[in-house]
Amino acid sequence: MKQAPQINNNRKVPETPAIKNANNQNLKYPGKVICIERQENMPHNLLVISDSANNRILIVNEETMQFQDQIGNSKIGLVDGDFVEAQFHHPQGLCHIYRENNHFLYVCDTKNHAIREINLMTKEVLTVIGTGEKGFDKDGNKSPEI
Length: 146
Fold this sequence. Notes:
Blueprint: E1 30-36, E2 46-51, E3 56-61, E4 66-71, E5 81-82, E6 91-99, E7 102-109, E8 114-119, E9 124-129
Antiparallel strand pairs: 1-2, 2-3, 3-4, 5-9, 6-7, 7-8, 8-9
């Protein structure tokens, strides 16, 4: 059986029931990670991890390595809503945009064939591109349906 790597983390982080230390958590095929640097409406650096095979996005305080939020309930689906009720199917690529005093993440929800928008301030997920059906542009150069 494969042994988990030992993580040498010299940071002193209090373990509380409400906040879990990210170092001791299991990820299942993490697809992508981005860092959002401290900025307006965001008191510390964040790591955003697409935990693809667990069908969720994780937000981790980069300075303390404590979980901030889990986006998605780990069930496979294409469900919009708050962070608890939202569902993904193998989320992957991520990007961050600050717009209109809000922090947004955009996520490639690969097996749902959709792009999802996550509002970090209101804690809501919305499908902004795609219907959940796979496209079939085999020849290429087709214009998107309008």
